[in-house]
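README, section 4: Worked example with a bound small molecule

Sections 1 through 3 covered apo chains. Here we extend the same pipeline to holo records, where the ligand is supplied as SMILES alongside the sequence. The molecule in this example is coenzyme A. Nothing else about the input changes; the structure line simply encodes the ligand pose together with the chain.
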Amino acid sequence: MTQAKKAGASESRLTWIVNPSDLNRHGTLFGGQLLALADRVAAMAALRHSRLDTVTVSIDKVDFVAPVRHGYILDMTARVHFTARTSMEIYVEAIAEEPRTGKRELVCEAFFSFVAVDEKGKPIPIPPVELETERDKRLNKEAKARYDARKAGRAQTRTAREAKSD
Ligand SMILES: CC(C)(COP(=O)(O)OP(=O)(O)OC[C@H]1O[C@@H](n2cnc3c(N)ncnc32)[C@H](O)[C@@H]1OP(=O)(O)O)[C@@H](O)C(=O)NCCC(=O)NCCS
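The generated complex, written as structure tokens:
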């Protein structure tokens, strides 16, 4: 097994200012745009953790907590808190800052799963993550339950697909 890597070593950040092209017709940030940014910052953490090519394989429990308005500054952070053999789960948090007052609030959080792949797109092993903080440890426990549920869900979908093609 490859050597464990500290969660903090691959923590990644991305900052974005919300421009008119990012807005929906209510004048707030598109959820899809926020998700794309979250995927991007999560990809940075996945790459830094594994130092391999990685692909997004699922997104769990996305919560849009508060609207983000024109001119707000978004600070996104991604951190690996769970690894299995070839996959990892990454927590992404988005904080929006009101530009005039500097008031900051959590606007979105989500859990991304990435898989490391070789040049043929086949999953390959990644280093285990070394948990550093109490939050890493709590998220790691919850992630194992999500990992098991996703696995069971995929098996169920497969069974349903097979039954349909009988
Ligand atoms: C990622 C991918 C290579 C996995 O292939 P696969 O044949 O399902 O591989 P396996 O069943 O052997 O699973 C490999 C790992 O992926 C994980 N995995 C597979 N499907 C998953 C899903 N839907 N959600 C979370 N993890 C998943 C498995 O748990 C396993 O992890 P582990 O080795 O840590 O236990 C394949 O699903 C793929 O290429 N998906 C498209 C990815 C992509 O293009 N993303 C960009 C979207 S635009």
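What to look for in the output: Strands lie at 5-6, 12-17, 53-64, 73-83, 87-97, 104-117, 129-130. Residues 55-58, 84-87, 113, 115, 117, 121, 123, 150-151, 154 surround coenzyme A (CB under 6 Å).

Section 5 describes how to batch many such records.
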